[in-house]
Task: structure prediction
Amino acid sequence: MQANDHIKDSLRKTIKTFFNVLPIIVGMLLLTSLLVTVFPEQISAGLFGNGDILDTLLGASIGSIAAGHPLASYLLGGELLGGGVSLIAVTALVVTWVTVGIVQLPAESLLLGTRFAVYRNIISFIAAISIAFLTVYTLRFFGLN
Amino acid sequence: MPKQQVKSSRGGWLFLALTLLAYMLLGLSNPEVIVKALTFFTHVMAQVLPMLGLVFLLLFIANLLLEPKRIKRYLGKESGIKGWVTAVLGGILSVGAIYAWYAMLSELKKKGMRTALIATFLYSRAVKLPLLPLMVHYFGAIYTLVLCLYLIIFSVVSGILVEKLTKQKTE
Result:
């Protein structure tokens, strides 16, 4: 009897949470679809070529606002590498693509708190740039690049 | 209903309404873009629907089995190294879109999950196990290995920093 009540209670809680989350998920998908349509992937290697620091900041910024499957970042990163963009900038793009979410920020704020979402994204952005430099310099240090 | 839940519920509907308003306003000047965006949305929604089913199931299991006491033991303030390992591995093994996990993490937070571990979980999701072969294909095995190691280290660092900063502002 008590177990039954616990199952019913859990189900009721789950349905309530699910319906609270649903408009956020649908809204976010609508927003992502709009951004992907309005700003198609027209990022060319021509935007880069301003030195490691500026290129890395640009790569990290593009990754932060990009919305889409991480696989797309590998494809774009591969294209950019082929176009002569530095590995540091490409790494920053690939890492921010999956760790920083400007488009997801409203959903993250609503569910996990605005302060948490803002700090997490800022720290993730800085961390991505650090990781980009560290990864490439580690490879260079061991002569593996 | 707790204050945070009411806020998130109302905020969610407001967010959806604002997004729909943006569609309507843009649709007045450029209906073609809206048709394209809605086509894209339908395509993505079709992919996400099974994931929503999984989210519902995970939420139900969490509500059924994970009691606050247990969450606090494994992912709470006193969880120690066990908590960090759980968060990193959980993030690496988690599949699907990130927003699906926000709901789950929000529930776990209410039950006592540590802020640092939520941030760590979200960061370690950058290590995408199913996509590793593709990353190796594009960037090489050694690059992939080094990058993944740094991602894991920084997932813990970012967790510590996010917790410190959010705590400082709360105090």
